Amino acid sequence: MNKKRIWSIIRIVVISLLLAFFFRSYLFASYVVNGKSMEPTLHDGNLLMVNKMIYDWKNINRFDVIVFHANEEEDYVKRVIGVPGDHIEYKDDTLFLNGEVVEETYLTSYRNGEEILTHDFELEMLTGERKVPQGKLFVLGDNRQKSYDSRDIGFIDESSVVGKVDLLYWPVSQLNFHLTK
């Protein structure tokens, strides 16, 4: 091979590595699900691709599956149930958002007809707030009986959100691009 061809290959490899580093560092992140709090949507050991930039361009929506910094050592994966201004209540295993019944289709495969997934609560009873405050989110795990979420830790800061889970990519047999409602 001549020197010109070698330098061309080196240039392509370096540019590819720089682009991969940029995408990995600033646009996307890979996360591993740790625990059962998001079953049946996500399972322990699933690999996720998190879009870190999406919320720079649009608001966080109800039912988005997000990753956020729970503390300095841990990140959690949960589903957004309430955004600023929302009043949240669960009664008879039914979600009421701002007084309206909302069907949680992502829980359908978890329901067996007899077992209650989400015990009754009202936002004010848990947090002392009637509505989700500005700059905060109310999040729950899909496995409501085994999830450590806003019912325990309270609201999370919007600024703690790493990004939106856009893709479940491992195991390949569970490949999923649609983790929202």
CATH fold-level label: Umud Fragment, subunit A
Q: Care to count the β-strands?
A: 11
> Residue share in helices?
10-25%
Low-pLDDT runs of 5+ residues are none
Backbone shape:
elongated
Give a quick account of the main beta sheet: strands, pairing sense, barrel closure.
7 strands, antiparallel
Number of helices: 4
Strand content: 25-35%
The assigned CATH architecture is Ribbon
**SSE string, helix = H, strand = E?**
HEEHEEEEEEHEHEE
The order of strands across the largest sheet is 1-2-11-3-4-9-10
Chain-averaged pLDDT: 82
GO molecular function: signal peptidase activity
Subcellular location: Cell membrane; Membrane
Main location: membrane
Protein name: Signal peptidase I
Task: Report on this structure.
The chain has 181 residues and is of the alpha+beta class. The chain has four helices and eleven strands; from the N terminus they run αββαββββββαβαββ. Strand 3 and strand 4 form a beta hairpin. It starts with a helix and ends in an 11-residue tail after the last strand. GO terms for molecular function: signal peptidase activity. It is an enzyme of class 3 (hydrolase).
Secondary structure topology:
Elements: H1 3-27, E1 28-32, E2 47-51, H2 54-57, E3 65-69, E4 75-82, E5 88-91, E6 94-97, E7 100-102, E8 121-122, H3 123-127, E9 136-140, H4 150-153, E10 156-157, E11 161-170
Antiparallel strand pairs: 1-2, 2-11, 3-4, 3-11, 4-9, 5-6, 5-8, 6-7, 9-10
Q: What's this, in brief?
A:
By secondary structure, the protein is an alpha+beta fold. It has one domain: Umud Fragment, subunit A (Ribbon). It contains four helices and eleven strands.
